[in-house]
Amino acid sequence: MAKTGSFKLSHFSAYDLLPRNSLQDSEDYPVWPKRKNRLQHLWGDGFSCAEYKIKPSHLQRIHRAAVSGKLEKLDTILITENCINDKDKKNRTALHLACATGQYQVVELLVLNNCQLNLLDSECRTPLIKAIQLKQVSCATFLLEKGADPNVMDYYGRTALHYAVYNEDTAMIERLLSHGTDIERSSKEEPPPLLLAVSQGKLKMVEFLLKKNANINALDSLKRSALTLAVRLEKRDIVVLLLQHNIDVFSLDVYGKTAENYAAAAENEIILKLISEYKEEKKSKALSINSNPVSSQEQLAS
Fold first, then answer.
1. Are residues 270 and 178 in the same domain?
2. 266 is a domain residue
3. Which spans of this chain does UniProt mark as ANK repeats (predicted)?
4. Are residues 141 and 34 in the same domain?
5. How many domains is the chain partitioned into structurally?
6. Which of 142, 158, 190 is the last residue of a domain?
7. Which residues make Cβ contacts (< 8 Å) with residue 193, sequence separation at least 6?
């Protein structure tokens, strides 16, 4: 369990600092962790402290062989024991542990011996999520090629894509999308990856996801748009990018406020001017089209 003394405000995104409604278990939000893990879930952000704490007392023979990379011993265990999908005392399979420690040959051996690819650890994470979270590229790529499900959500309502976005790993994002990852996957607690990128202030990720056709007008559970989040976080460069991609500036959140309202409340004159100029430009174009529909259609056709 995470110590409260290690809590750092800098670990949190805009989402962690805002109140949420009470969450209930449902198909689109994972069940709460067991009682002993709830404080870790509530105080942790799900991104920091990603490494497994591995102690010999937690492990069975198969897990020890997997972590140490002893292929001959592991092969013998797989032949003599029916334990390939067994979990250790921390709810991790040998595949989880091999992915987390970058033991590619172990991963290959386990998969070729038909281990289950999508079993969950104590935080509802698959081996694929763990590999991507810890930047074990070879392991993650192999699992995708062998059919691991990239759309499984963990306790934080995140998929493998959320962690690839957090790591700013464009190559892994490409691989995930080519293997059927839902770019809009979200939950009650975690928004689509595009909004995660905005909330983390990752301009290059926002730009990359928009190029991959992420929905620019996606909303979170409080109906906040990417623009609203960028304005509240005073991320001017992201605001400019979103306006360039014609985001809806009139979108209302659950409190009936637009991004412009939040900019005004924060007295952010620069962002207010950007939004105002964008609205004027859109209005001017609309008037031009209405006043001369024939030439406008010809212009569009050309």
1. no
2. yes
3. 90-122, 123-155, 156-188, 189-221
4. yes
5. 2
6. 190
7. 161, 162, 165, 183, 185, 209, 214
Smallest CA-to-CA distance from 55 within 92, 19, 15 is with 92
Judged on CB neighbours under 10 Å (0-12, 13-18, 19+), 209 is buried
Quick: pLDDT tens for 181-213: 999 999 988 999 999 999 999 999 999 999 999
Asked if 198 contacts 226 with a C-beta cutoff of 8 angstroms, the reply is yes
Residue 267 region, left (φ>0) first, then alpha (ψ -120 to 50), else beta?
left
In order, the DSSP letters of 93-122 are BHHHHHHHTT-HHHHHHHHHTT--S----T
Which residue, among 250, 230, 232, 248, has the nearest Cα to 240 in the 3D structure?
A: 230
| Residue ranges making up the domain that contains 275 | 209-291
Tell me the CATH number at 181.
Answer: 1.25.40.20
Three-state SS at 29:
strand
Give the pLDDT confidence score for residue 115 in this predicted structure.
99
Is residue 4 in a domain? no
Helix-helix angle 61-68:104-112, to 10 degrees: 130
pLDDT in tens, 267-295: 999 999 999 999 999 988 877 776 666 55
Q: What is the DSSP letter of 11?
A: G
Tokens 């990856």 -> residue: 193
